[in-house]
User: Fold these one by one.
Assistant:
Number 1:
Amino acid sequence: MDRPISNILTDAGREWTPKAAAEESEISKLRQLAPFVLPAEYVELLRFCNGGYGELDAPPLRFQMDTIAETVEHNEMWRKEGQYASFWFIGSNGGLETIGIDLRSGPPWPIVMIDCLAGEDSAEQIANDMAEFITKIGISADRKGT
């Protein structure tokens, strides 16, 4: 990314409410638990905010970012149930749609929205990679360009 994520997400007009930054020890633990190498942009995002919520300029239009603890809990739950091993969930819209990293192809991994009740076939790509996804955080789709 050309600009630090902290600068992008604090731009005037962004609707993003971040939680406090993650501790380096939490990020290290997450790196050990994740079944893939975390995208550098995601790690930088965690260093800025360990969770948050706001608008999203892509379906499902809202992003409620999980904390590291929530991310670990949600992904372990799905893996114990034998589902969604090809995805790494990082949040939701606060409702039925879950947002995650699609691990079915190589890096850079696309970001997808999934209706977990409908199953993996409902995965819809909403960004080509984490860097593009971050540029959509805090932007209201109906106010874009105003």
Number 2:
Amino acid sequence: AASAQRVINPLADRVHNIASDKGWYDGSSASSLPELIALMHSELSEAQEAARHDNPPSEKIPDFSGVEEELADCIIRILDASAFMGMNLGGALVAKIEHNLTRASIH
């Protein structure tokens, strides 16, 4: 758990600092958790659209597919929100994975 916190939480801070520097928090409604969650959802919708269109290469990062780009965008949004809200996402991630290990198979 500690190693995930040492990786995930500083990465979240970096992503949030970039978003702040680029103006995402300059007087916008993006400072509410529901708005931040909506932005995460929009990235997943964009990934779904890319998948529906045979997952073409990304226009912005052409070494990757559209789905890869949009899933990365969603992770970026999640990291940004977690840092902005002061969450311990790294700790929660490890705790949830450990919990999932104790669950019964769905098959």
Number 3:
Amino acid sequence: DAAAQAEQAMKNVAVLLDEAGAGAGDICKLTVYLTDREFLEDVEAVIARQLGDVRPCYTVIVIDGLAMPWMLVEIDIDAVIHD
């Protein structure tokens, strides 16, 4: 389901940020693509739990489909690492 896909996506983001020497606090922009508006509440709950007090710019776009038919959500994150 969409919440499980969002959970996995956010876990992947945490790993990638860690590998880059960054963390959730370095996220400055988040874009979520959903294939159905009904997924929004559950997906946002997952993202909010993962980000904690971090509040980046946030956009949600509802689209007809993603690259694979089984994909329900895609999360695109930009982070900036300050020296």
